[in-house]
Amino acid sequence: MDSKHTPGPWTAHSGAVYVDGPNVYPKGDDLGVPIARMDREPGNGTVPTERDANARLIAAAPALLEAAKALIDELDGHIGAGVEPYTALRAAVESAS
């Protein structure tokens, strides 16, 4: 089943990822609608700074995906499929799309 991810931009705040915008329903609080929360259970092996860093990385995902797609579009026809970073980027984009 092919499903689309929640459109960005996403933001991170206090170990959670939020989305907001005119097409988001229901409306959330001032931060938007939470779409992901990092595990905050004691003893889970992470600390607050690590959870916040994970949330920031996840929040950057839509922008990173679009940038990777744009780079692939620019490189197609100019770089060979045997170039490992290019092949890895294409595989990552395909797995996220």
- Low-pLDDT residue intervals, each spanning 5 or more residues: none
The secondary-structure class comes to alpha+beta
**Main pleated-sheet profile:** 3 strands, antiparallel
Radius of gyration (Å): 17 Å
Terminal CA distance reads 12 Å
Task: Enumerate the strands of the largest sheet in spatial order, edge to edge or round the barrel.
Answer: 1-2-3
Order of helices and strands: EEEHHH
Number of distinct beta strands? 3
Shape: flat
Would you tell me the overall average pLDDT? 83
Percentage beta strand? 5-15%
State the helicity in percent bands: 40-55%
Count of DSSP H/I helices? 3
Q: What is the fold's blueprint, element by element?
A:
Blueprint: E1 10-13, E2 16-19, E3 33-37, H1 48-59, H2 61-75, H3 84-96
Antiparallel strand pairs: 1-2, 2-3
Question: Key terms for this structure?
Answer:
single chain, 97 residues, 41% helix
How would you describe what is shown here?
The structure is a single chain. Strands 1-2-3 form a three-stranded antiparallel β-sheet, with helices on one face. The model has no long low-confidence stretch (mean pLDDT 83). It is α+β, with helices and mostly antiparallel strands and 97 residues long. The chain has helices at residues 48-59, 61-75, 84-96; strands at 10-13, 16-19, 33-37.
Summarize the structure.
The chain is an alpha+beta fold. The protein is 41% helix and 13% strand.
